[in-house]
Write a structure and sequence with these properties.
GO terms for molecular function: dioxygenase activity. By secondary structure, this protein is an alpha/beta fold. The chain has helices at about 25-30, 95-110, 150-165, 170-185, and strands at about 15-20, 40-45, 50-55, 65-70, 90, 115, 120-125, 135-140. A 4-stranded mixed beta sheet has the order 1-4-3-2, covered by helices on one side. Strands 5-8-7-6 form a 4-stranded mixed beta sheet, covered by helices on one side.
Length: about 200
Amino acid sequence: MAADTMRKIQTQGVHHITLMGADRQTSIDFWEGVLGMPFIFDQPNLDDPSQGHLYFDPGDGRLITIFTNEERKPDASRTSSETGAVHHIAFNVSQASFWQVAKRLDARGIRHSGPKDRGFMDSIYFQDPLGLTIELASYRFEPPEGCRHADVMIEAHRIRVERGDYNIDREHLADAIELLVSRSQQSLSTDRNPKDPYGRG
C-alpha cells in the first residue's frame, strides 16, 4: 500500500476497558466496595444475553466494565502474563490516599507488594479476586497549568537521556516543570535565568 494512502486513526484517550468477571456481586464488592468506583450502569451484554454488563467509574469519567455470569465463580489464580495478555491495570490515586493503601489492604487481609519507588511515581500492586494484578499509582508531581502529566514526562525523559541517567527521578521532573513554565507562561522580565537576591554569590 502506498504511504500517501495511509492515514492514522487518531485516538483521544481510553474510552473504556472491559474485563471478564465472575458473578455480579464479586464485581460490585471489589470495584466499588474495595476501590470506591461508583457502580453507574447495568445492562445485559448486548452480544451475549447470558452475561451481565456492569459499568464502574474509576474517577475520571472513563469506564471500567465487567462481563458477569452467575455460573462463573471467582478464581484467584494469576491471570495470563503471556505475550499479548494484559499484565496489569493501573489506577491513579492521590498521595494522601496512596499512603493509606497498604494499611487498608492489610485490614482486609489482601496481600500486596508494599510501596514501590518508581522515581516519578509511587506504586503498590495486589490482585483482584480473579487474579488480575491491580496497580495503584500516585504521581509525585503536578503539571504546570495548561500542561498534562504526559508533557512533564516527555520533557523529563529528554533531560534524563541528555544527562545519561538510568531512570526518571524527582530532579528531572522539577527541571522539566521549570522548562515547561518558561515556555508556556509569559513574563515581563527579559532575563528569566536563576538569580541570587540575597547577594551571596
